[in-house]
Amino acid sequence: SLPNKVTIIEVGPRDGLQNEKRNVATEHKLRYIKGLQKAGVKEMELTSFVSPKWVPQMADAADIMTSVEKIGRQFVLTPNARGMENAIAAGAEHVAVFVGVSSTFNQKNINKTTDQAVEQLAEPIQQLLSKGIFVRACISTAFYCPYEGKQAIEDVIHLCRTFVEMGVQELSVADTIGKASPLESYTLFSLLKDQFPNTLITAHFHDTEKMALANIFAAMQAGVDRFDSSAGGLGGCPFAPGATGNVATEQVVHMLHRMSIETGIDENVLQQTIKEIRPYVSM
Ligand code: HMG
Ligand code: MG
User: Fold this and answer.
1) Which residues form the pocket of ligand 1, taking CB atoms under 6 Å from any ligand atom?
2) In whole angstroms, how far apart are CA 272 and each of 32, 69, 97, 146?
3) Are 75 and 136 in contact (CB under 8 A)?
4) Which residues partner with 174 through β-bridges?
5) Does position 283 have pLDDT exceeding 90, yes or no?
6) Which of 148, 224, 226, 231 fits 12 for a cystine, CB–CB 3.0-4.6 Å?
7) Do 96 and 138 touch, CB atoms closer than 8 A?
């Protein structure tokens, strides 16, 4: 059966903009975020506190954080304790950490193996949780890795379990390069819903092979009612060759509304917001 209501976690300001080659001015980013909030988005990844040498586009993370209104869950992405400290100093109350299943991917993305990445996050995550901060763990390359290919489902579950045991409130499980099929989506998300009944399970699809909407439908059949998406379909990971944009928020919302599934998002305001950012990005 399908959900009556779905939560959209808008990741355009982070996953979308991080992949833009041209620098997008902070004021345009802020207008994009404001427009998305006005459209009714209640959960969003605003920016990331990563090394500006690795991802120059996110160098204005602190400015973004201090300038936006905190409506609902406003996440910032952080790779390490340093990022978390900066995020908290800027007022973050919702933090996303990220690790891939694939060690090769992690080495390219964060210069660590999977085990090293998990190990260096364990203690800082406990500190976040003890401060009452909401922690979301983003699990990259949960289906395919651009370097290693298909990932074993046991490895995906094992990594997810590690974070669940640390006490994170949410897992956002990602098809980083948009290669999963609806059958793979259904299989993995059924297993995750079954294994982790007390953790929010979110699906994060990139749309490289145009299967993201089908994958969302399949994940809904597996019981998932939370989806990451990016307004305008912006996005991609600079360290995952072949990763194109995230599934477009406007397409997800349109499909859901056509199926009488509520999102709380106003499609007209959303379209207007996309129109306003378009001149400044490669859309
Ligand atoms: P490193 O070079 O191994 O680390 O990078 P380091 O500790 O040697 O630090 C290098 C420099 O960065 C130092 O500065 C540090 O101080 C600084 P220097 O002394 O040379 O001047 N630094 C930082 N600066 C700001 N904020 C920080 C921070 N940490 C260190 N937090 C590191 C390791 C993790 C920092 C680097 O690899 C990095 O920033 N990687 C981020 C990559 C990234 O943002 N990828 C995209 C996000 S993940 C994604 O998109 C996937 C997702 O959407 C799901 C999916 O679709 O799969 C979530
Ligand atoms: Mg992504």
Assistant:
1) 15, 18, 48-51, 53-55, 79-80, 82-83, 86, 98, 109-111, 138, 140, 174, 176, 204, 206, 237, 239
2) 10, 20, 31, 34
3) yes
4) 204
5) no
6) 231
7) yes
Residue of 20, 45, 51, 111 to test ligand 1 pocket, by largest number of atoms within 8 Å of CB: 51
Nearest alpha carbon to residue 47 among 8, 113, 95: 95
How many angstroms separate the CA atoms of 96 and 101, rounded?
A: 16
Indicate if 160 belongs to the active site: no
Plot region of 169 (φ>0 → left; ψ -120 to 50 → alpha; else → beta): alpha
Query: How is residue 159 written in tokens?
Result: 């990594």
Cα gap 247→231, rounded to integer Å: 8
What's the whole-number mean pLDDT along residues 220-229? Answer: 98
State whether the Cα torsion 84-146-103-238 is positive or negative. negative
At 91-144, the pLDDT tens digits run 999 999 999 999 999 999 999 999 999 999 999 999 999 999 999 999 999 999
Q: Determine the number of helices (DSSP H) and then strands (DSSP E) in the chain.
A: 11, 10
Cα dihedral 71, 73, 78, 84 sign: positive
Instruction: Express each pLDDT in 48-58 by its tens digit.
Output: 999 999 999 99
- 202's enclosing H/E stretch is strand 200-205
